[in-house]
Write a structure and sequence with these properties.
This protein is about 70% helix and about 5% strand. The chain is built from 15 helices and eight strands. It has a three-stranded antiparallel sheet, covered by helices on one side. Strands 6-7-8 form a three-stranded mixed sheet, covered by helices on one side. It has a two-stranded antiparallel ribbon with strand order 4-5. Helix 10 packs across helix 12 and helix 12 crosses helix 13.
Length: about 525
């Protein structure tokens, strides 16, 4: 019995000891887990702080880059405005200097005129005194002659008239014979004049430039592709080329309307490319139009080179060759400018040959006489003076420069070929059917419309379409708001109404398009 109790006590003691040992072990494990949790929390906090610092630095760098970008744009805008103001101030100063110089010259001329007037008055007084003395001497002389000749003044006058009449008859016969002999000697010169007149009468008739181009289509289904969804394609074409596309009921045809032949040609070639390619959308349209412009520049050079080769003109500067090719897409009073210049060149060559002068030099001046009508930028100079300036810039012969500048009497003629160029220009322009004044007035009105719109701030492009019945103005979206667009349309319409004379009415359309462009790399 005692051994059983002892065993039970020993068992209980073992159980208690096990429980105590388990609690000690559990306490040690819990402490270790707490320590591990603290270390993990410290690591998480450290990582979070590092990430926060990294994000903070990135945001600071982005803010600095944005600030630098905004500052650069602001500096650029300030620089542009400063440059424009400086240009205006320079032009004003130049005008002021010119006006002051003119005032000084005018004052000097007035002083000189006063001195001349006083001198003339003194001379008139002297002449009057001399006349009075002469009349007295003449009367005394007549009385003496009458006394010596025993004739009255009337009798002497009659005898003198009779003798003078006989002498005049004999001289007239002699002069008549001299005129006949001189006419025979100048027969060759008169024959040359007849040849020149014949050239004028038989000059070839040239085609008159129209204001529209008809673009033929294979099927009417293509019209839908050109118009695009909600008209976006046709609007993109008109905005990129400045040509009005008229899509009506005409079967298998679209009408391209613009006063500028170069714009019509760009639009025609672009449409041809787009239709053959099949991809017609705004981005593709802009790309094709830009490529067509470059292609047309190459074509202009080819036209210029072909023209100078056909006329036998050598050594012409490449820029002048380009200007000659550009004449193909310009007209003057309805007469194609390149055909007019070629005609003048041929006439000058013929006339110079007949007059025994250098025909090649005359042809060169005749071809280049109107290069001032196709400037790359607007200028206040007349086309004759601008053409002379361009010819001088590209190293032309002084005789050619003078002929270009003097063919409208805006420069003094210093060389013999100058009047020849002027005469041949008049022959080409004055022959029947060569020019149409009404067409030139229409083109001038169209250009004035576009120029008027471009004077407003924020206007990027301006196109006069619908034969001048609509002015389409494209503005920069970042400079002109929607409310400003309404105001701008109204102001331009009022300006046209007050400053211009035109038939009917003109619709002013302001287009504001916002584009967001990003590049994925």
């Amino acid at each position: 019995m005692g051994s059983i109790v002892l065993s039970i006590i020993i068992g209980i003691v073992g159980i208690v000891a096990g429980i105590i040992a388990g609690k000690v072990i559990f306490a040690k494990d819990t402490k270790k887990q707490v320590e591990d949790a603290d270390q993990q929390a410290q690591r998480i906090i450290s990582d979070a702080q590092m990430q926060a610092e990294t994000i903070k630095k990135e945001k600071i760098l982005e803010a600095k880059e944005r600030f630098v970008q905004l500052k650069s744009e602001h500096d650029k805008e300030v620089l542009d405005r400063t440059r424009k103001i400086a240009d205006v101030e320079n032009r004003l100063k130049q005008k002021e200097v010119s006006i002051n110089q003119k005032e000084l010259n005018l004052d000097k001329q007035l002083k000189d005129n006063e001195a001349i007037k006083e001198n003339l008055n003194r001379q008139l007084e002297v002449v009057s005194q001399k006349r009075t003395e002469l009349e007295k001497h003449q009367e005394e002389h007549i009385r003496r002659l009458e006394k010596i000749a025993a004739l009255t003044a009337d009798e002497a006058r009659n005898q003198l008239i009779e003798s003078l009449k006989q002498e005049a008859q004999s001289r007239a016969l002699s002069m008549q014979q001299e005129i006949i002999d001189d006419a025979k000697q100048k027969a060759n010169k008169e024959a040359r004049k007849i040849i020149i007149q014949t050239i004028q009468r038989t000059a070839a008739e040239q085609a008159i430039e129209n204001a529209i181009t008809v673009f033929n289509l294979e099927t009417d289904e293509i019209k839908g592709q050109i118009i695009g969804r909600e008209g976006r394609n046709i609007r993109a074409i008109e905005a990129a080329t400045g040509v009005d596309l008229i899509v009506d009921d005409t079967p298998e045809a679209i009408v391209l309307s613009s006063f500028d032949p170069l714009r019509r040609e760009i639009a025609r070639l672009s449409l041809q490319r787009l239709i053959s390619d099949g991809r017609i959308h705004p981005a593709r349209i802009e790309e094709v139009v830009e490529k067509t412009r470059k292609q047309l520049e190459e074509q202009i050079m080819e036209i210029g080179e072909r023209t100078v080769i056909e006329l036998g003109i050598h050594g012409l500067h490449k820029e002048l060759v380009r200007i000659v090719g550009k004449m193909r897409f310009r007209s003057s009073y309805g007469q194609n400018l390149l055909m007019h210049s070629r005609e003048v060149a041929n006439l000058c060559g013929l006339m110079a040959s007949e007059l025994g002068m250098n025909p090649k030099l005359a042809k060169r001046a005749g071809l280049l006489h109107d290069i001032g009508k196709v400037p790359d930028e607007e200028t206040e100079l007349s086309h004759a003076l601008l053409g002379a300036k361009l010819a001088e810039k590209y190293g032309e012969n002084p005789a050619v420069i003078n002929a270009i500048g003097a063919h409208h009497d805006e420069m003094e003629m210093q060389y013999v070929i100058s009047p020849i160029i002027q005469a041949c220009d008049a022959i080409s322009g004055a022959r029947p059917g060569a020019r149409r004044e009404i067409m030139q007035q229409y083109l001038q009105r169209i250009k004035e419309l576009e120029t008027l719109a471009l004077t407003y701030q924020g206007v990027e492009k301006a196109y006069a379409i619908q034969a001048g019945r609509e002015l389409r103005v494209i503005v920069e979206a970042d400079k002109v708001t929607d409310n400003d667009s309404d105001k701008l349309s109204f102001e331009i319409a009022q300006k046209i109404q007050t400053d211009m004379t035109y038939p009917g009415q003109i619709k002013v359309t302001v287009i504001r398009e916002k584009r967001a462009v990003n590049i994925a790399r």
